[in-house]
Amino acid sequence: MDRIVNGIARGVFVFLYIPIIAVIVYSFNAAGTNTRFEGLTLQWYADLFQDGALMQTLRTSAIVAVLAATVATAIGIMFALGLARYRGRGKGGFMALIALPLIVPEIVLGVALLSVFSATKVPLGIVTLVLGHLIVSLPLATLVLMSSAAMLDPSLPEAATDLGCTPWQTFTRVYFPLLRPAVVAAWLLSFTTSFSNIVMSTFLSGVGSTTLPLKIYSSLKTGLTPSINALGALLILLTLVIVLAVGVSQMRRILVDSRS
Amino acid sequence: MATTTRMIHLGRKERPKRGSLLLLIPGVASVVLLGILPLFIVARNSFAVADDYGGIVGGFTLEHYAKLLDPVYSKTLFFSLGLGLLNTLVCVVIGYLTSYYIVSRPEGKQGFLLLLVIIPFWTDFLVRTFAWITILGSGGPIAGVLGIFGLSGFSMIPSNAAVILGLLYSFLPTAIFPIYASMRSIDGSLKEAATDLGCSWWGVHRRVILPLSSPGILGAALLTFIPTMGVFVIPVLLGGGKDPLVGNLIVTLYTEFRNQPMGAAVSMVLLVLMVLSMALVGLLLKRASNKKKGA
């Protein structure tokens, strides 16, 4: 029986990589359509960078993701440090509150924000996108930071205070250096969450603030082009860079240990 | 003297507490203003009367919820629920087997196998989905191989089978992580002991590993079910939009029909479904932990 399970599991690993390999291989396909494989070309990559509209959406996505990730990480650091030092009652309640956006379907959060913005006549654009992406990445960033902040020795900040550090100095000289790996992980996690977000963006982007995933989605509805495969291959590369930057052990803690 | 020390202690205890509460404010405010408050507005809108253009007028009506019984809506709701449950079941079963495989590898190799799951999980959701259009479509490798044998015109796009495959592919990693997490903490000697005492492969799983990893399994089920029910990209790209899911319904109602109250009602159904499934998981977890205490 174990042998059958092993076979299934190995099959799963193959299954997980079939699409990734397909995207990369077809991004070099010289044939103009996805019909046959006709040798190698880099043309689709060149096309990609000459597509002005696409580059504009890339810019929008990058701006939104940087803003959302930075704000989410800043709020997350404050929350994590606050909760780590908090000794009063209701700690569990605060943790449940910050995790709430994770358990509400994202699509419902999206329409909820759209309802607020349309009721208050706030025009949809970069700002609404950032706010929407913020609320989905905030719990992720905070949970990552919380698990690291909880492991800090509580006597360290006390020692810093005793040695005459102001709260701000305690933060910059003690907390921040110790939390740096978690801060990097939280920021990159929020960045990718925002950069690849399609659900929130569907409801919260306005005229002129189309994001890259929205653009890909709308062009896919009319048919797959080879340059989309090239774009996909670049996004896979970005994933690899980010996963390696965060580090395997850190990733393992984020995805496995924080959920147990 | 004793009182003085106590006062000093109290003083030290009180100070960081107030400071730490201040640090929680931005996080709490964000969730309240961008999460909880908007949800209340959706709840309110689902009972509001709409004007001819789908705008919110006010008042109170149950008309939108009554409309959900209309086959136009109820068919989609039940189809999504069925597909969501099916996907959750398949993801959990395959996730369980994969996690068991990873856990039974040596510790050093486990990290690498986990990395192999993390990379596809981290890859852009759209990239993961559109890759299947290439693979399953008329010009893909499967069609190519079948073409050699004279079977031309193969394409699985669009079809419900492709949608099911796409859902499985998207949410399988989400199911693997929590199950692996709870399996890793199981003492390996328990499995050996059960085998020594005459348990078959099934016996070991039914009596030892399955019950001990139940928190992870339930967590995986929840983490798969919630996002599956909100999906709208996969049915459009892989299913051709023929059989919409709840997610498609919500997007269409809001962005194309601009029917906010009806969209709000459908969203509320989804929200209630999530609350119910979480309550169910909570109940099952409680029962599992009571059983452990009783034994």
UniProtKB/TrEMBL annotation, chain A:
GO terms for biological process: transmembrane transport. It is found in: Cell membrane. Residues 58-246 form the ABC transmembrane type-1 domain. It comes from the Bacteria. The chain crosses the membrane at residues 12-32, 62-84, 96-118, 124-146, 182-208, 228-249. SUPFAM superfamilies: MetI-like (SSF161098). Keywords: Cell membrane, Membrane, Transmembrane, Transmembrane helix, Transport. Belongs to the binding-protein-dependent transport system permease family. CysTW subfamily. This is Spermidine/putrescine transport system permease protein. The lineage of its organism: Bacteria, Bacillati, Actinomycetota, Actinomycetes, Micrococcales.
Automatic annotation (TrEMBL), chain B:
It comes from Leucobacter aridicollis. One of its GO terms (cellular component) is plasma membrane. This is Spermidine/putrescine transport system permease protein. Pfam families: BPD_transp_1 (PF00528). The chain crosses the membrane at residues 21-43, 77-103, 157-181, 216-238, 262-285. It is found in: Cell membrane. Belongs to the binding-protein-dependent transport system permease family. CysTW subfamily. It is a multi-pass membrane protein. GO terms for biological process: transmembrane transport. The keyword Transport applies. It comes from the Bacteria. Its main location: membrane. Residues 77-281 form the ABC transmembrane type-1 domain. Keywords: Cell membrane, Membrane, Transmembrane, Transmembrane helix, Transport. The lineage of its organism: Bacteria, Bacillati, Actinomycetota, Actinomycetes, Micrococcales.
